[in-house]
Design brief:
Number of domains of chain A: 1
Strand content of chain A: 5-15%
Largest sheet of chain B: 8 strands, mixed
Distance between the termini of chain B: 83 Å
Number of strands of chain B: 14
Structural class of chain B: alpha+beta
Order of helices and strands of chain B: HHHHHEHEEEEHEEHEEHEEHEHEE
Helix content of chain A: 40-55%
Helix content of chain B: 25-40%
Oligomer: heterodimer
Strand content of chain B: 5-15%
CATH architecture of chain A: Orthogonal Bundle
Largest sheet of chain A: 3 strands, antiparallel
Number of domains of chain B: 2
Number of helices of chain B: 11
Radius of gyration of chain B: 37 Å
CATH class of chain A: Mainly Alpha
Chain lengths: ~120, ~425
């Protein structure tokens, strides 16, 4: 499968960004790297969607941003989670896991459900 | 609302620049990517190009970022604004709560100030902004000298002088006037319940016809109402009719008791007619009664003159005519010595369009009008006996002053020697 073509379901990017920031503040470029590495290069975040998503989350007060110096001393904008962002992450994670489990159950089924349940 | 830390207020002291922020952020991204590619063995030039290629449509992302940034900036600014406001309001109430005396004083002062502003505005609105509430009001002229030092007594005319001027001029469709000396609450309405003070003013019987005011109900005054010994009649203003008589639709023809005399209500004036607003700012007139000239002949100058010029007659023409007629006016026709007493030098008639007069000169009704004859202490109060050499209370000479409203004469001034 072409890794770059692995499209994000709607809303997935947001929750991944929130998760990426759980261990501390990061700039945008580091977020893409973290998600890529964390997913064993399966998920490639496109810059064209990452930044608008970051700004949107900042606007919703799920993230807050501040300017700081990057590891190689460049001025970079760092994002970190707000309390509201953490709450949102917990909730989204639960929903996402429930969804994934359900989808996995259906896709992983080896036999149809019992007849009486269909009726 | 979330409390904003104090320091946030100064964070944007030099002014925010969302567009520059977006540019910086994206440039950092490209730089970081380029560095990584170089580290992987790319040529710097190629690495840069590759980073840009991977990024995709840089410009549209940048554009979207700028738009969102501006929106957030506006939002933050608004939030700061509200935060400041709430902080101020909280501070205010805290302070006021600590010092109730001061709070009460402050609130009272504010209330008074707002109230007086409303009053002043309503006067200014009538005087300066709105046209006079009469049809063809540009034809209405104020007939009198320019403002005189000796006050209204020197700016008005005797009953005789009014009649002579009226009969000898040709420029006017009509000339009317009102009693220049009146005061608030000069009448008492009795017989209905508790005696209640009311403010009335006497007007010549053609007053409303000249101004072009139609009654809301009933009729206006007629010439007969102004004859000596005529039955007492009164016109009510609309607000007074509503307030005092609960807008009684059958009021016309009823008799009311005004300061002890039975007076028939002949009509109610329309809401648009507000005597005080035009002629005596700040005064609420409740009712209008006919000015009966024959009762007033022994008084000094009491009639203000307002004329309505004939169509086509200019103010200059009316003025020229007035200057011709004025020297022949008599304070009292019976006394030839009192003829030729009006006008001269600075006190000659100077006609003004009524609107301009109202703007500059109209003044609140003064209660008793006291005229100073002279600064000379030798001039003392005394009773009017003889006709004056000059009809007005101008310094130094003649009978001065006039009377209070109501029936009680105000003692006239006359030069005497002790």
């Amino acid at each position: 499968m072409d890794r770059a073509k692995l499209e994000f379901f709607r809303g997935t990017l947001d929750v991944l960004i929130l998760k990426a920031l759980v261990w501390g503040r990061l700039h945008g470029y580091a977020i893409t790297n973290l998600i890529r590495r964390q997913s064993d290069d399966a998920l490639l975040v496109e810059e064209g969607t990452l930044y608008p998503a970051l700004w949107r989350l900042e606007n919703k007060h799920l993230l807050e941003a501040e300017w700081g110096l990057s590891e190689n001393n460049r001025r970079a904008k760092f994002y970190s989670l707000t309390a509201e962002g953490r709450r949102q992450l917990r909730q989204e994670t639960r929903i996402w896991q429930a969804y994934a489990t359900a989808v996995a159950k259906v896709l992983g089924a080896t036999q149809p459900p019992a007849l009486e349940e269909l009726a | 609302m979330k409390q904003m830390p104090m320091w946030r207020r100064y964070a944007r002291l030099l002014g925010p620049d969302p567009a520059a922020d977006v540019k910086d952020e994206l440039r950092f991204h490209l730089d970081a990517k380029t560095d990584d590619l170089i580290a992987q063995g790319w040529e710097p030039e190629a690495a840069r190009r590759e980073a840009e290629r991977q990024f995709g449509d840089l410009r549209s992302v940048q554009h979207a970022g700028e738009k969102l940034g501006k929106k957030m900036e506006r939002h933050k600014r608004l939030q700061d604004h509200w935060n400041d406001l709430f902080r101020d309001v909280r501070y205010t109430f805290r302070k006021l709560g600590r010092d109730p005396g001061f709070a009460v004083a402050a609130i009272l002062i504010l209330a008074l100030a707002i109230g007086s502003n409303v009053v002043v505005f309503s006067v200014v609105n009538t005087l300066l902004l709105r046209p006079l509430p009469f049809p063809n009001s540009e034809e209405l002229v104020w007939i009198g000298p320019p403002p005189q030092k000796c006050g209204k007594s020197c700016e008005t005319y005797s009953a005789d002088a009014y009649e002579e001027f009226r009969d000898q001029t040709r420029s006017y469709q009509g000339i009317t006037g009102y009693m220049a000396f009146s005061s608030p609450d000069n009448l008492r309405l009795t017989g209905r319940s508790e005696p209640k003070p009311a403010t009335g003013i006497e007007v010549l019987t053609n007053f409303f016809q000249v101004l072009g005011v139609q009654p809301e109900m009933g009729r206006l005054f007629t010439v007969e109402d102004g004859r000596k010994g005529a039955a007492a009649v009164v016109l009510l203003t609309d607000p007074y009719w509503r307030r005092q008589f609960a807008a009684d639709a059958t009021i016309v023809g009823q008799t009311i008791d005004l300061s002890g005399s039975a007076t028939t209500v002949v009509g109610v004036l329309p809401p648009a007619f507000d005597f005080g607003a035009v002629f005596a700012p700040g005064t609420k007139i409740d009712l209008l009664t006919p000015l009966i000239l024959d009762n007033e002949r022994m008084w000094g100058n009491i009639v203000t003159m307002i004329g309505r010029t004939k169509p086509g007659v200019t103010l200059a023409q009316a003025q020229a005519e007035a200057l011709l007629v004025e020297p022949h006016l008599c304070w009292k026709v019976k006394y030839p010595k009192s003829c030729g007493a009006y006008g001269g030098k600075d006190s000659s008639m100077q006609l003004r369009v009524l609107k301009d007069y109202v703007k500059r000169t109209a003044a609140p009704l003064t209660s008793c009008f006291v005229v100073r004859c002279s600064d000379d202490p030798a001039h003392r109060l005394c009773q009017p006996v003889e006709p004056p050499a000059r009809p007005c209370g101008c310094p130094g000479k003649g009978i001065c002053g006039t009377r209070c409203s109501g029936r009680k004469p105000w003692p006239h001034h006359r030069p005497t020697t002790d």
